[in-house]
Amino acid sequence: MVNRIEMEKYERLFPEAQELVKSSQTPDLVEVQRILKARGSSGISLSETASLLNLLKAPNETLIEEVKTSAKVLRKKLFSNKLTTMVPIELGSYCTSNCVFCGWKSDNKKIQRLRLSKDGLLDELDYLLGLGFSHFELSGGDDILFLKRDLYEFVRVAKDKIKKVNPAGRLSVCLTPLTELHYGTLAKECGLDTVLTWQESYSEATFNKYMVDGPKRYGIDDGFKMIKDGKGYLDRIASQERAIRSGLQVGIGTMIGLCEDPLSDILSVVSHGKLLLENYPDALPLIIGMPIWREIINEEYDSRSEEQNENQQDLVEFFDYIASVYLLSLPDYKAWVFPNCRVSKSKQMSAIESAGMFTSTMVRVGPGAYNLENLDTKKKFSKSNVGLGELTAEDVLAGEQFVHYFDTHENYLHQFVAGGFEMTSESYFLGEAACKSSS
Ligand code: SF4
Question: What are the phi and psi torsion angles at 284 (to 5°)?
């Protein structure tokens, strides 16, 4: 097994990205064309990525289109017209962390909190398997008691259930970053395939400004205990390496718009991806997540300023451009760009056309929020801060983590097919990626 990446390298990701963004020139048409033409199978260099990102400082439509067109050609060459979908299943909205931007932060005393029971998880899976999904992401708040007591068992029963219906089905988690011991157990004993961990921000100052308390701020140890005076920011960046060493596929990404310097944050994702792939060339393709900072359901708990709202709109406008830069920057077949339902369907679709081959549909960001027909709350949930017997389907939906876009899986598929895409399962890409990147 290769040596671990030194922590200092992780610590330098953001400051070095900032330097590169600051020192690189905004390219003209000739330079953009040179960068795109010279691109080899290992992707463009970090300084070239910085140049392309700098275009967002004063967007020029011709240059932006030039980059998106090049990404579109590459996307077609690597993945043809194929596309695969995933769906998140929220396990619970209990959270011991306090992230300022999130509806489930421990400070939010108004939100109704729910924890899914094992029966509830199986019910949601049944429903979503019936719709044809083949990748399921178990996510939730930093519910340490749940992680310690139930996580292994929930992952095991979920994977067993998925395999019975679809042997090629895959399971991921998007939860508190865990230790190598935890990831090893999840991979080897419970059947987990993938770990998705979004960094929120690679800037330590931004991370600490928004992640003010709890396991996310400090990290956890093998016993699921919060680390006293730990650096959650660094522990989180290093978590993908721990998962790769345990044989898992990983996702990386930053919450676009959280950091005041979003271009350096985006460049840090690329730099992190390159670092992982240089050290672990046999790792499965990296999933490059594109979570966008969204407003939360209880307005009085939403701390975003007007200025931040405006900056956010600008970034949403260029969502497909950011997806394109990710694809062009990383090695062929080694990056699956993942546009999701935090942007409108048209923006999501545009990013898929330019660069994305892994996407989500029909997302609900609340526990138990998919199969609401014949809702038996006492069976579906194991814990709640309101009377379980009194909960209605509307109440369940009111507990979502943030505002997002929703449409049925069927409508999303209709749009994808109308756009010329053919739906496939991830195993197709894993087989293709394994063959082509090693040939
Ligand atoms: S972002 Fe995650 S860890 Fe932070 S408060 Fe929300 S649910 Fe908890």
Answer: -65, 160
Q: Using the atom order of ligand 1, give the atom closest to the CA of residue 216.
A: 3
Which atom of ligand 1 is least distant from the CA of 215? 3
Q: Can you list the residues of the chain whose pLDDT is less than 70?
A: 298-301, 432-439
Q: Check if the beta carbon of residue 221 is closer than 8 Å to that of residue 165.
A: no
* pLDDT value at residue 128: 97
Domains within the chain, CATH numbers bracketed? 7-438 (3.20.20.70)
Atom of ligand 1 nearest to the CA of 141: 7
Q: What region, left, alpha or beta, does residue 287 occupy, with left being phi > 0 and alpha being psi -120 to 50 degrees?
A: beta
What's the 365 CA to ligand 1 centre distance in angstroms?
A: 12
What is the per-residue pLDDT across 270-308, written as a single tens digit (0 to 9) for each? Answer: 999 999 999 999 999 999 999 988 877 766 667 777 777
Please tell me the distance between residue 402's alpha carbon and the centre of ligand 1 in angstroms.
Answer: 11
Q: What is the pTM of this model?
A: 0.96
For 45, 78, 184, 305, 431, the CA distances from 38, given in Å and listed in that order, are: 10, 17, 40, 41, 28
